[in-house]
Amino acid sequence: MKAIVPFFFSCVLIVSVLAPSSAFARHCGGSRSCQCGDVVVSDYTLPGNLGPCEKRGLVVASGVTLDCDKHTIRGRGERSDDFGLALQKNATGATIRNCTVTGFQRGIRLKEVRKNKILFNTVHTNGNAASGVGYGIDVARAQDNLFKGNFVHHNADEGIHVGTGSHGNTFLNNRIEDNGRENFYFLFADRGVLRENSMRGGGSASLF
């Protein structure tokens, strides 16, 4: 029995060391630089291009402004299965602006968030062109957000996908062009406002 005890404790230590830590994403922002997969918890200006990211780019927390200063956040292209930028669940008052997002399954993702701003971003060449899967901007059960001045083009499926339960969103002065299927796609989404947007090309329709 004495020989078994130290072996037992060794196994426990190994399991502890190998326990997954990905659930605890690294925080960044302010004076702390951001890397792929981080959660931006303080206002942050991206100092240069980021990526290629193996999985996701950055997650932006409630009340935080991420300004990419026209730099690019890049994924792995058609091999990617995650998003470039996303708002943290239940985020409010966050802003994503001046970002170029490319090479992810979804460029910018808003899910279960409210009253945020997506401003003057370029979102292109996201998703898998061969399979026709992947959106530029994906809006899922997100309400009362503002999308202004974005250029969304050449994404595999839809340019901007507004899914069920995404009510009261405003789309102002965006350019949505040459996406694989629809440029704009709305599904059971009420009280939306579209004003001064331009649409061109699109495999199936400019507006569905």
What composes the largest sheet? Answer: 9 strands, parallel
| Sheet/helix structural class | mainly beta
Order of helices and strands: HEEEEEEEEEEEEEEEEEEEEEE
**How are the strands of the biggest sheet laid out side by side?**
1-2-4-7-10-13-16-19-22
Q: Average pLDDT, to the nearest integer?
A: 89
Question: Can you characterise this structure?
Answer:
Mean pLDDT is 89; it is low at 1-22. This protein is mainly beta and 208 residues long. It is built from 1 helix and 22 strands. The protein is globular and about 45 Å long.
Summarize the structure.
The protein is mainly beta and 208 residues long.
Please render the helix and strand layout as text.
Elements: H1 4-18, E1 27-28, E2 39-40, E3 44-45, E4 58-60, E5 65-67, E6 72-74, E7 83-87, E8 95-97, E9 100-102, E10 106-111, E11 117-119, E12 122-124, E13 135-140, E14 146-148, E15 151-153, E16 160-162, E17 170-172, E18 175-177, E19 182-186, E20 193-195, E21 198-200, E22 205-207
Parallel strand pairs: 1-2, 2-4, 3-5, 4-7, 5-8, 6-9, 7-10, 8-11, 9-12, 10-13, 11-14, 12-15, 13-16, 14-17, 15-18, 16-19, 17-20, 18-21, 19-22
Defining traits:
208 residues; mainly beta; 9-stranded parallel β-sheet; 7-stranded parallel β-sheet; 1 helix; 22 strands
